[in-house]
């Protein structure tokens, strides 16, 4: 790898673009064991293609799925694209995506574990107040990683850099719902998707 870096510096000079290319080539190092020959003249498009193929191969052998949906305020405030972009940048693959108006019955089933609690009706009213964006996501350790990416349920205590920490202030209108376990992901996704996860 050091040889490639020196070659790139001599050919093109040292700049940020070459540094990114060098980082991409370092990520390809594990592929060398699979007889991938890395040449100094390898185009960025080819590097990106190889990285994408390796990511897909890794995902397919070590991944699982989870369920999430963007709440009405995400669509109303026009941050849905940003949230989806963050999820994809983290490495999630969006397996299913659907715009949907949650019915009262679906909401009551989804939040059934909270029935009888003071905030139950507020949750049901909120998620039925406008369209949501349902999704099934796939990734390595999908449930736990997604929960970290979205942040704490209460956006006021969520870490900066998380979706809720950056994009919300309300505990009810907290941009996104995500299943908290693989078992719940299966149950929740089956409410909205016939084949679930």
Overview of this protein structure:
A 4-stranded antiparallel sheet has the order 2-3-1-4, sandwiched between helices. Helices cover 50% and strands 14% of the residues. The model is unreliable at 32-37 (pLDDT under 50). The chain has 2 domains: 2-61, no CATH class; 62-192, 2-Layer Sandwich (Alpha-Beta Plaits). The protein is an alpha+beta fold and 197 residues long. α2 runs parallel beside α3 (44-62).
Structural class: alpha+beta
Proper CATH architecture of the largest domain: 2-Layer Sandwich
Estimate what percentage of residues fall within beta strands: 5-15%
CATH class of the largest domain: Alpha Beta
Q: Report the count of strand segments.
A: 4
State the domain count: 2
Order of helices and strands: HHHEHHEHHEHHEH
Indicate the overall shape.
Answer: globular
Lateral arrangement of strands in the main beta sheet: 2-3-1-4
CATH superfamily of the largest domain: Nucleoside diphosphate kinase-like domain
Cα Rg: 21 Å
């Amino acid at each position: 790898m050091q040889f490639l870096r020196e070659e790139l510096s001599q050919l093109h000079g040292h700049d940020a673009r070459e540094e990114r290319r060098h980082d991409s080539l370092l990520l390809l190092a594990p592929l060398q064991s699979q007889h991938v020959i890395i040449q100094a003249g390898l185009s960025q498009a080819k590097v990106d293609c190889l990285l994408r193929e390796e990511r897909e191969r890794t995902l397919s052998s070590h991944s699982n799925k989870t369920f999430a949906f963007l709440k009405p305020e995400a669509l109303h405030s026009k941050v849905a694209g940003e949230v989806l972009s963050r999820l994809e940048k983290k490495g999630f693959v969006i397996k299913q995506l659907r715009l949907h108006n949650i019915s009262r019955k679906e909401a009551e089933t989804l939040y059934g574990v909270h029935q009888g609690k003071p905030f139950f009706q507020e949750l049901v009213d909120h998620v039925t107040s406008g369209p949501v964006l349902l999704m099934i996501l796939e990734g390595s350790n999908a449930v736990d990683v997604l929960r970290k990416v979205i942040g704490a349920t209460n956006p006021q205590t969520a870490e900066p850099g998380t979706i809720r920490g950056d994009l919300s202030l309300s505990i009810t209108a907290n941009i996104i719902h995500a299943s908290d376990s693989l078992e719940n992901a299966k149950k929740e996704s089956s409410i909205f998707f016939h084949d679930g996860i």
